[in-house]
Structure formats: C-alpha cells, structure tokens
Write a structure and sequence with these properties.
heterodimer; A: mainly alpha; MetI-like fold; B: alpha+beta; Rossmann fold; OB fold (Dihydrolipoamide Acetyltransferase, E2P); 2 domains; six-stranded mixed sheet; five-stranded antiparallel sheet; 9 helices; 26% helix; transmembrane (chain A); membrane (chain A); ABC transporter permease subunit (chain A); transport (chain A)
Chain lengths: 276, 334
Amino acid sequence: MARATSTQRKLGTTLLAWAVGLLIFFPIYWTILTSFKTEAQAISDPPVFLFFDWTLENYSIVQERSDYMRFLWNSVIIAGGSTLLGILIAVPAAWSMAFVPSKRTKDILLWMLSTKMLPAVGVLYPISLIFVEFNLLDTRIGLVIVLMLINLPIIVWMLYTYFREIPGEILEAARMDGASLGKEILYVLTPMAVPGIASTILLNIILAWNEAFWTLNLTAANAAPLTAFIASYSSPEGLFFAKLSAASTMAIAPILILGWFSQKQLVRGLTFGAVK
Amino acid sequence: MGQITLENVTKSFGSTEVIPPLDLTIEDGEFCVFVGPSGCGKSTLLRLIAGLEDVTSGQILIDGAEATTTPPSKRGLAMVFQSYALYPHMSVRKNIAFPMRMAKIPAEEQERRIEAAARALNLTDYLDRRPGQLSGGQRQRVAIGRAIVREPAAFLFDEPLSNLDAALRVGMRLEISELHERLKTTMIYVTHDQVEAMTMADKIVVLRAGHIEQVGSPLDLYRAPRNLFVAGFIGSPKMNFIEGEEAARRGAATIGIRPEHIAVSTDSGPWAGTVSVSEHLGSDTFFHVQGTGLAETITVRADGEVGFRHGDRIHLTPRDDVIHRFDEQGLRIA
C-alpha cells in the first residue's frame, strides 16, 4: 500500500515543488528577460515572452550613464566589511555565551534579537544625527558600521547555535594542553566551527548586499552601493522598465552567482538550529 | 616533580556545596585513585586540581607553589578525558603535537617525542589518520599520547576507560599501570569502578558526597575499612552486613564479612540457608544464600567449581579472624 502510493505522491510533491520554485523564480526571470527588451517591448500588452528582438542596448546605456563598477565596489566593501567586522566581534561573544553561559545568557540573546523587531525608520533620526556629528554621511566606513550593527544579532545567534554543538571538553582539553584563550579560539574552536562560520558569513554578505534602507538613506554619491544604483533608475526619469531591469540584473548578478555556488552552506545556515 | 596538596578546599555551585572543606596530599610519583559512587564529587575534585573549575575557598599547591588561581594552561598538568576530547580536525600526529606546539618546543624535538609516544602506544601506523577513523581504544591511546609528550608534573584521568568495552578496558588498565611504572609521574585517576581502583592505585581516596571517607592503600581499605560505606564499596562481590543478635554476640551493632571469608559445606557450620542463585565462573563460584535469618541474602565466594545449585541447603562457616565490627554510627570497632 505504502509502496503503491509513494510513486504518485512523489510525483505530486515534485510537481508542487517545481510550481512553487518557478513562482518564486518568476520575478527574477522576468527582470532578466525585460533587461534584454526595448522600452516599448517592455511595456507591451500582451507581454512578450521569448520572441522579441534581443538587445544589449539597455546595458550599454546604463553603463554609460552611471559607473557600475564604482557601485559594485562599494557594495563589495560594505557587505564584506560589515560581515568581517561582525564576525570578529561575534566569535568571542558567541564563545562566551555558548561555553560560559550565565543565568542571563538566554535573556541577552533574546534581547539582542528583539532589536531586529524595531522598525529601522524608528532610529533613522538619531543615527543620521550621529552620522552628521562624526562626518560619516556618505562614507563606506559609516555604512560598514551601521550594517554590522544591524546584522550583529543574527551573526551572534547563528554562531552561538553552531558553537553549542561543539563539545566543551575539547576546549577544556586545549586549555589543559597549554592553549591560552586566544589560541583555544583560533586553533581549536574556529577550525571546528568552519562550516558554521562559513554559512554565517555567506548569509550576512547577502543580507548586507541587499540592505536598502540604510544604504539609501545614508549615502549620496561616494559610498552608494548597488541598491542606490538600482534606485537611481526608478521614478524620477519616468518608468524606463527595460533600463531598470538591466540595472537590477547587474546588481543582483554577483550575489546570485555567489548564492548559487554556496547553496549547500546556505541551506544549512538558513535552517540553523532547526535540524540537528 | 608533582606533589599536589589541597588545603581546606571547598566548592559550591550556587548554594549547593559539592565539596565541603577538604584536605588531601598526593605525593610525587604516586598513583592516586578517587573512587566513589556517581555524584560523589570525584570529578569535580579532579577539575578543581586541573583548574577547569575555580575553588570557592581554600588553596591548591603544586610542588609547594600556590596554584589556586593559576589558569589550567599554566599548571603543567595533563588530562585525559572520558570522551577522549581529541581535536577532530587534526591528524593523530597534530593532536599529539598540539601541547608541544603551545609550549613552543622545537620541531625536531616535537617529532622525536611524537615518534617515541607513537611507538610506546602502538600508534605509529595511525599518525596520519584523523580521530574519526580510529577505534575507541586507539582514540584513548591518542589522548594518552597527547598527555605524555608534554612531560607534565602530573596526569589527571577522568574516568578514561568507561567508554571502552570490557576486554579493552582490562588491556588499557594494564597499559596505564605500565605507563606509571615507566614514567614514575604522579597520576590522579577518577573512577566509579572499585576494581580499577584496587588494581591500579598506590593510594585510594574514597569519596561520598564530597567528603573523604577514607584514604589508604588498596589493601588497607580492604583489610580495615573505616566505616560501613567504605566496607561496602571496596571489594567485589560486596561485603555481607549482619545486624542483630549475631552482631551483638560479637559486641557490635553491625558485623561485616566478605564473601571470600565464608566457607561452604553440606553438613556443618554455624549458619545455614538455601542457595537462591549460583554463579559458576570456573575459577570461582558465587552463591547467593537466602533464609539464613541473618540478612536477606548472604553472598559467598568459593574457590574453583563447587557444585551447589538453586534450592540446595548449605552450611556456612565465617572466618572469625576477618570479621569486621562496626558500632551504631557505622564506624569500625578496632
């Protein structure tokens, strides 16, 4: 009985999974497709799917009008920098929470996470003032700091759950073997937690790469990352869908490729703590 | 050198006192076993010596030098854990080298000591494997190798054999004893297994609820247990305890007689009962005798194969010279 239904069931779930997958992928597909159309085709009704005059015109116009590489470079520095800085702060924090917990450790973790529930706009004003005060407006270092702080709770949480899976006795063994705290973290804890640290880094690069609220509000030209690059193609100049799509495609391409090659790590990262 | 002294050491977790004030000296080169039932504080005591737990009050001296607040990495002690605690991402060679790397010992010297340890522990063929590719016994040997290469002042063993199967346990027990004979380094060994304690120790420390019940050589504890707890804990099978008239006749509240100090016969002897279970090991035979009117069950050990079976009526003769007498408080009457 179980065998007889299982093939049918498998087929059903496979189809459903494909349907959901395609549905999720459709906007990305449509964006990429539109980026190869002319502006007229992009808004034609009924929409054209495959048979249109493929053109690279949008890409060259976008590149002409704004310097893609500069935005890309800003994105790389902001996403990479904030993640790296976050990891450097979060590893010792997660170490102490996982291996020398106190009565309040759980509360601290929850409190940290609760900051993620605050709408970002609620602290826009104070943060802007701080940025003005310290001359951080439209600087990469300013964004690195802000995005690091925004993602720090998630980084600490993820590392904490990974570290908890590492038996404390191994760290005690390192201590008995003469390792100082720094060496214990560097030579024993970190290598054992490499898979966890890798998925934490990946997820946070993606989160920082896609972050649009702070990057748009705190930058003008110098430090503007790809989110600002996309935004510059929306409303003010009318709705140039094809060019907007070309800009979007160029903005998401790097992170999409990174995500594709690190799928395995990411899945582990996104389901952290759920399956053990 | 490795003399370890505990002076008035206490340990509390929150409001729970795990180790009440305790004094103990472990002499240089001694094989000292902490034994007691689970939860008696023996592992905590070892971790206090290691520095993995902080003492609540009191002092720990290593070779006469104050070490109470010295971090574990600076105490010069090596520890072998129950779970082996090997570094899973390092090869056996790197595991063994790790403490030397931390101590910044020159590479050639490291190599020399690794080779020597591997030869002594039969690990030469496994040096380039990861711990995950080794059997339990091999892993335990790697853990021991990692401990010996750094030439510590003392070795601390925390129930190192309890994850091994019975046959391997006996083998490793011998290896650790041989290691002690060869190195003559102080060893502190924690176990709940009194057989390990009896076979390996120079000195046994019997613990109950953080208290030291008795300290002495294995045979001291066997021959003259200070109280009922030690009497019942040391020796296998357990000592028989008899209360009531039989004890009163000998001027005690309780008397204890070991199974090997009772002779069995079919027809003569002051005590009589029925065999409920007989265990035939070939070398020995154990009888669990009921219905004697002395205690619920009297355990008797006979040399070699003795053919009594379940339901047989037998007579027992205790050896009067080795009967232990205890007073109302459970303390030994000399």
